[in-house]
Amino acid sequence: MTPAPTAPHSTPARVLWGAALGALTWPVDLLCAVLALLTARRRTPLAPVRAVVALHRRRTVRFLDWSDGGAPLTSRRATGYLALRVGMSSLSMLVLGLLAYGLFGVVVSLASWLFDVRLTVDATFQGDGLSTSDVLVLVPIGGILLYLDLMGLFGVGLLDRWTAARWLAPSRSERLEAQVEELTVSRADLLSALDAERGRIERDLHDGVQQRAVALGLLVNRARRLAGPGAAGSLLLEQAGREAEQLVTDLRDVAWRVRPTTLDTHGLEPVLRQLASHAAVPTVLDWDVPVRPPGEVETTVYYLVAETLTNVAKHSGADGARVSVSLGGPEPAGDRPDGERQDGVVHVVISDDGIGGAEVRPGHGLAGLAGRVAAAGGTLALASPVGGPTRVEVVLPCA
């Protein structure tokens, strides 16, 4: 669906004008309604039908204060809308005809009264023409009839707007689908912005803070060497040197956890191997990805594995863990038969032999991982019975 254009605020005069314009298309509406009915089995209506419906959409938005939700035009919608349009056009033509007849009667009556013209709408007024008393009697009657006629035309305009809302507005399910799609895109954009910001922070740590920490360590070591081993404060300088070295190490670890630079330069495999080697729980990595996945997939898999291994170390009480990454691997249990492979996806399995009991709860780490995976178009399945083991399976499209 396309975004809904903003409908201008309609005044009664605009509604009357819009209803009158709609009445003028009666012959075209009738022809297109017949075409739409004959081709109702088509998925999309014929080009003339689409053009006429598009014309009425613009007219209804501009004059009748209707907001077009941009629902796709199907043959069913076009047929239902044009069928009602034929009836409304006929009614509008009748109302306009009565209005024209009344205006003609006013002109002829005034001519008979002012200029003694012997042409009147009713045979009653033939002969001597209209007198002033006759005109005074006809004025309120004509005013009432004019008011009723305009109200009838205004009612046709409101009915026209209702018809457009009934047949051309998106359904509730279509609006929900559009909202879900918009939220999914927004979440993916948010994650992309977050990853970009993490990359910027990592570069700032690596190129700024870390370099200053290294320079500080070098200055402390130079001061310790110049002071000599027996000088006052040499022990403090030696301790400061060790602290500076530890600061550099900590900064490197923090920068690497924020977003490792090797993820962009060397790819996902060496990063995961380093994660496995530094994990608090002994971890085995099985890698079966012959080609490098897209950058978004690599970033998602990295954060998935890093966060899951952190949770394993904190909560599982496991003695060991295993990370398996494959291209076109089997789908999560229950979706496909065992052993069947699906092309164009990256399949990640993270398992441990801990106590189990893990759940995807709002506000917790696994819920955030599930949201990141969903934003990337993938699925996450968790199996963690009480007593273990725990198994996290993720499928990410990489085509």
Indicate the proportion of strand residues: 5-15%
Number of strands: 5
> Which residue ranges are poorly predicted, with pLDDT under 50 across at least 5 consecutive positions?
3-7, 329-342
Structural class: alpha+beta
Shape: elongated
pLDDT averaged over residues: 79
Description:
With 399 residues, the protein is an alpha+beta fold. The chain is 62% helix and 9% strand. The protein contains eleven helices and five strands, in the order αααααααααβαββαββ. It has a five-stranded mixed beta sheet with strand order 1-2-3-5-4, with helices on one face. A hairpin with a 6-residue loop joins β4 and β5 (390-397). α4 (75-115) packs antiparallel against α5. It is elongated. It starts with 11 loop residues before the first helix and ends with a strand.
What's the arrangement of secondary structure elements?
Blueprint: H1 12-23, H2 26-38, H3 47-63, H4 75-115, H5 132-167, H6 172-227, H7 234-258, H8 262-265, H9 268-278, E1 283-288, H10 295-316, E2 321-327, E3 345-352, H11 365-375, E4 379-383, E5 390-397
Parallel strand pairs: 1-2
Antiparallel strand pairs: 2-3, 3-5, 4-5
Helix pairs in contact: 1-3, 1-4, 1-5, 2-4, 4-5, 6-7, 6-11, 9-10, 10-11
What does this entry show, briefly?
The chain is α+β, with helices and mostly antiparallel strands. The chain has helices at 12-23, 26-38, 47-63, 75-115, 132-167, 172-227, 234-258, 262-265, 268-278, 295-316, 365-375; strands at 283-288, 321-327, 345-352, 379-383, 390-397.
